[in-house]
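From: lab user (bench 3)
To: helpdesk
Subject: output format question, protein + tetrahydrodeoxyuridine

Hello, I'm new to running complex predictions and I'm not sure whether the block I got back is the full result or only part of it. Here's what I submitted:
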Amino acid sequence: MNSKYLINKAIEAQKNSKSKYSNFAVGCALLSIDDQVIFGTNIESAAYPSTICAERSAIYSAISSGITKFKAIAIVSPVKAKPCGQCRQVMHEYVGNIPIYISDEKGEEIETHYIKDLLPHPFG
Ligand code: THU
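Helpdesk reply: Thanks, we reran it on our side. This is the complete output you should expect:
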């Protein structure tokens, strides 16, 4: 399974976004070591801080299903956004230093990053 495959899954997840307050839809696809794809999307709430990002949505869903080892993660958004600070922390703790594929919602240009670079000197 290549980066394009996983980015396309993130694009599918992005379609489920509930982001009427920000109008910023994010999709995430997390690939487990046994090739299961776990979807995540951002879900916003009228009580704004209750919002959850696409990345943590996918990570928490995977862990809730007992899936705890991962090979890669893909994230799409309108502007190829990098994960927020909270998601970086959770990725550091629960996902590990796997390739993080990032693209816009067309999925044409894919960047690859690693949490070691996105979150230097992590806590914990
Ligand atoms: N968002 C994510 O889903 N992932 C990130 O890493 C950054 C931000 C979401 C949260 C909110 O629903 C919207 O994008 C605007 O911040």
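A quick orientation on your result: The pocket of tetrahydrodeoxyuridine is lined by residues 19, 22, 24, 26, 42, 44, 51, 53-55, 81, 83-84, 87 (CB under 6 Å). Let us know if anything else is unclear.
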